[in-house]
Amino acid sequence: DAGITQSPRHKVTETGTPVTLRCHQTENHRYMYWYRQDPGHGLRLIHYSYGVKDTDKGEVSDGYSVSRSKTEDFLLTLESATSSQTSVYFCAIKGDSLNTEAFFGQGTRLTVV
Amino acid sequence: EDQVTQSPEALRLQEGESSSLNCSYTVSGLRGLFWYRQDPGKGPEFLFTLYSAGEEKEKERLKATLTKKESFLHITAPKPEDSATYLCAVRVDSSYKLIFGSGTRLLVRP
């Protein structure tokens, strides 16, 4: 298995509270991604990073922010959680070469009540 | 707008009954098409990468093919353990983003 660890694996939080999800990798890969997965929508890209302190938005970035201060860690923050952010969140990592695949973590199931 | 569409949404097969899953795409410049398998409660697991029309890849009972407009994942004589959701994704131009389809849920009954 690719060395990706997501934490926590499950979380229930209240509307309006801040939430931070962590993705940790041991592969020293340059590229890291955050996706959310919802029924009928597949995987949708939230944010991605192409290096330390280098990040960019994906297709569903509103309400989310990210930070990458170290190669191995990519944090996803929901500044003020809403019920529409209830989802399963996946982190992925990818090596430097264009022609390499992405590897995914096990996911974090987030419920906003 | 770059788009990936998978069909069917769900597929039920009897063990041994071969079939194909479809992934059609409309993108500005394909730089790779990826197939993943996802089991319930787990992250997607990489299966294949295809880069150019006419390319084929095989792994056990699975075979992936690519044309200029679509990719097929052929499943030959499937077994119940092949039951999963199969996801297709594309990378376009020089971006490192992967755009995913909604997936096909495959159920293989004994």
Structure commentary:
The complex is a heterodimer of chains A (113) and B (110). By secondary structure, chain A is an all-beta fold. Chain A has one domain (4-112): Immunoglobulin-like. Helix content of chain A is 0%, strand content 58%. Chain A has no helices and eleven strands. In chain A, the strands form two sheets. In chain A, strands 2, 4, 5, 6, 9, 10 and 11 form a seven-stranded mixed sheet that branches. A four-stranded antiparallel sheet of chain A has the order 1-3-8-7, with no helix packed on it. The radius of gyration of chain A is 13 Å and the shape is globular. Chain B is mostly beta strands and 110 residues long. Chain B has one domain (3-109): Sandwich (Immunoglobulin-like). Helix content of chain B is 0%, strand content 60%. Chain B contains no helices and eleven strands. In chain B, the strands form two sheets. In chain B, strands 2, 4, 5, 9, 10 and 11 form a six-stranded mixed sheet that branches. In chain B, strands 1-3-8-7-6 form a five-stranded antiparallel sheet, with no helix packed on it. In chain B, 34% of the residues are buried. The model of chain B has no long low-confidence stretch (mean pLDDT 93). The chains are: A mainly beta (113), B mainly beta (110). The interface between A and B is medium-sized, with 24 and 25 residues.
